[in-house]
């Protein structure tokens, strides 16, 4: 799952934290 997070973070660092927070 780290790979996906890293990919998303690189693609859209702003959208990553929001989604991460929601998923977590």
Task: Provide structural commentary.
With 24 residues, the chain is mainly alpha-helical. It has 2 helices and no strands. It has helices at residues 2-11, 15-23. The longest helix has 10 residues, at 2-11. The two termini are 13 Å apart. Residues 1-24 are annotated as: Disordered.
As a percent range, the share of strand residues is under 5%
Question: Mean pLDDT, rounded to whole units?
Answer: 60
Helix-strand topology string: HH
Bin the helical content.
Answer: over 70%
Overall 3D shape = flat
Radius of gyration: 8 Å
- First CA to last CA: what distance? 13 Å
Please report the number of helical segments: 2
Runs in which pLDDT lies below 50 for 5 or more consecutive residues are none
What is the fold's blueprint, element by element?
Layout: H1 2-11, H2 15-23
Quick overview:
This protein has helices at residues 2-11, 15-23.
Kindly list the characteristics that best describe this protein.
flat, mainly alpha, 24 residues, 2 helices, 79% helix
């Amino acid at each position: 799952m780290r790979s996906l997070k890293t990919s998303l973070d690189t693609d859209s660092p702003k959208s990553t934290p929001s989604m991460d927070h929601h998923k977590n």
